[in-house]
Amino acid sequence: MIEPILILGVGNLLVGDEGVGVHVVRALEEMEWPEHVHLLDGGTGGFHLLSYFSDYKRIILIDATRDGERVGTIQEFTPRLPSDFPPSLGAHDIGLKDLIGAAALTGPLPQMTVVTVSIEELKPMELELSPAVKASVPQVCEKVRQLLALNEVLP
Asked: Which InterPro entries does the UniProt entry name for this protein (predicted)?
């Protein structure tokens, strides 16, 4: 049996580009996936997601970051510790770092790959993505497919 893999998108849909992780998961839900690939809209993160870090041995996390890069820039990294997360993920970054820290206290962390999309500003009460971030959504979906193929999860 193949180990299940979680694709977890986090972000706040009410704050414009900050919700890109959730938008990506919604786009991925429109595609066909093997039954061992699980998709989850993680919303704004939080401790309700803690059990997923013990339930899965592999997680691909998708989030926005305010890192000063050009808006829509896609980056990928593999954190080993909570401190490896970039200093400015979206508006929920403290909660996400706390979540990873708490998960590390309960047992070994799953193998994680984080895919980020650079955003410029938070826009409260904005439901749409900016054109540059919206254009990155299909590219992030393709990046996820590449990561899964690289790990021999997809042909």
From this structure: Pept_HybD-like_dom_sf (IPR023430), Peptidase_A31 (IPR000671)
Distance CA 66, CA 69 (A): 8
Is domain 5-149 in CATH 3.40.50.1450, yes or no? yes
The domain segmentation of the chain, as residue ranges, is: 5-149
**pLDDT tens-digit readout, 129-143:** 999 999 999 999 999
Please state which of the ranges 7-16, 52-61, 96-105, 112-121 shows the lowest mean pLDDT: 96-105
